[in-house]
């Protein structure tokens, strides 16, 4: 493959540089000089005419390449010019590199698939990477939605440097493609480990607690310590990846948003079962919405099973929280704990985490703790925990007020 770069200088027509597979470089000025040398000798007039033809062919190729580059540039989702990709180590990849890395996006390299994108395992410069390719088919409105998700991931991940946030390495937007390149996380999603059914591996409480604390630290970074306030809005086990040391890394920022104070939306995005009631009912999202999602994950980790299976056609929203609340108020919280954990030496810590989970899934957002508060509760056994209130979320409709519990 030949990669060509064009530069225009004062007092010259410009120069182009081509690199072939052997790494040799050729410049237009060198070619013109070579042609002039041929013209100085009558013995090389024929060679001179041939050289002029080569120059003309080169200029035509340069124009054709520039035309395609311009087309690709016009089709790109908007990326702010203020972001210095070189300083951040952020790469812009060619589509041919993406095809080569994934063996032309072969099914054998597919490691994840969702409604909007497919994730492939690949290798670039000897490094294993995860390559997320957004679907570009469908209606115009659908493609616009895909572009918004693509841009949101770039905005959110470009400057993040945290052990519990997946690292974005670069992107590709050539020929209408929308492709993101991430660090490769070998152990996949947390959803496969909650019950052990997907891996045949049961996590002990030390591993589960470390994962819970890591997720909390990642969310706290998004909410308070990254310089801006970011709402993830789709925090769930499948969006938490585990590296080789079982450290959690939050991923999939496609519907994440920058927050001023609160966010009101007409279209509700997220995953049923993990969406906070105020967001589900009236479209009001805040940092407390992510706290609710975290609380559901925390309770699931203790139970050792999901709230509901993704294949369930009509999942009951809030079923996990209701069950946990009923057992806690009846003094039977131990029944909520995964049977494989009931003989753990740290069972008191497990029961404490159940109470923290219930605080996080309070129906009213003002009753939920902030994520820094959650980290203090998890890290310090001396911290006195408040009791969950379980006061219903108030909804005004048709002049009447009702409560969702």
TrEMBL record:
Domain of life: Eukaryota
Gene3D superfamilies referenced in this protein's UniProt entry, alphabetically: Phosphorylase Kinase, domain 1, Transferase(Phosphotransferase) domain 1
Keyword field contains Kinase: yes
Protein name: Protein kinase domain-containing protein
Alphabetical list of PROSITE patterns matching this protein: PROTEIN_KINASE_ATP, PROTEIN_KINASE_DOM, PROTEIN_KINASE_ST
SMART domains: S_TKc (SM00220)
CDD domains: STKc_IRAK
Keyword annotations of the record: ATP-binding, Kinase, Nucleotide-binding, Serine/threonine-protein kinase, Transferase
Regions of compositional bias (Polar residues) in chain numbering: 24-34
Family that this chain belongs to: Belongs to the protein kinase superfamily.
One annotated GO molecular function: ATP binding
Domain called Protein kinase: residue spans: 105-384
Pfam families: Pkinase
Amino-acid positions noted as binding ATP in the UniProt annotation, renumbered to this chain: 132
Lineage of the species this protein comes from: Eukaryota, Viridiplantae, Streptophyta, Embryophyta, Tracheophyta
Segments for region (Disordered): 14-50
């Amino acid at each position: 493959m030949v990669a060509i770069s064009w530069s225009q200088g004062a007092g010259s027509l410009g120069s182009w540089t081509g690199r072939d597979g052997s790494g040799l470089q050729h410049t237009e000025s060198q070619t013109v000089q070579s042609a002039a040398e041929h013209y100085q000798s009558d013995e090389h007039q024929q060679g001179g005419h041939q050289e002029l033809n080569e120059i003309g062919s080169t200029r035509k190729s340069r124009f054709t390449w520039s035309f395609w580059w311009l087309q690709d540039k016009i089709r790109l989702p908007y990326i702010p010019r203020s972001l210095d990709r070189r300083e951040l180590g952020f790469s812009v990849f060619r589509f041919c590199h993406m095809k080569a890395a994934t063996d032309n996006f072969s099914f054998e390299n597919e490691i994840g698939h969702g409604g909007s994108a497919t994730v492939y395992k690949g290798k670039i410069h000897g490094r294993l990477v995860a390559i997320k390719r957004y679907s570009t088919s469908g209606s115009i409105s659908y493609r616009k939605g895909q572009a918004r998700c693509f841009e949101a991931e770039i905005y959110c991940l470009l400057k993040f440097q945290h052990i519990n946030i997946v690292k974005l390495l670069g992107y590709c937007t050539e020929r209408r493609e929308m492709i993101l390149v991430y660090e490769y996380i070998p152990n996949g999603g947390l959803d496969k480990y909650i019950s052990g059914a997907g891996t045949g591996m049961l996590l002990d409480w030390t591993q589960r607690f470390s994962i819970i604390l890591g997720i909390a630290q990642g969310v706290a970074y998004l909410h308070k310590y990254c310089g801006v306030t970011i709402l993830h809005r789709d925090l769930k086990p499948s969006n938490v990846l585990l590296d080789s040391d079982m450290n959690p890394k939050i991923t999939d920022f496609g519907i994440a948003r920058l927050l001023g104070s609160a966010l009101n939306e007409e279209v509700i995005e997220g995953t049923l079962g993990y969406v906070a009631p105020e967001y589900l009912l009236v479209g009001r999202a805040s940092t407390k919405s992510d706290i609710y999602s975290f609380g559901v994950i925390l309770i699931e980790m203790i139970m050792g099973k999901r709230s509901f299976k993704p294949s369930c056609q009509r999942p009951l929203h809030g079923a996990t929280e209701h069950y946990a609340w009923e057992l806690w108020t009846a003094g039977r919280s131990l029944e909520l704990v995964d049977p494989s954990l009931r003989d753990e030496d740290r069972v008191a810590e497990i029961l404490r985490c159940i109470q923290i989970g219930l605080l996080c899934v309070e129906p009213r957002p003002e009753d939920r703790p902030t994520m820094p508060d959650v980290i203090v509760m998890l890290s310090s056994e001396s911290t006195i925990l408040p009791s969950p209130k379980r006061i219903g979320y108030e909804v005004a409709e048709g002049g009447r007020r009702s409560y969702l519990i």
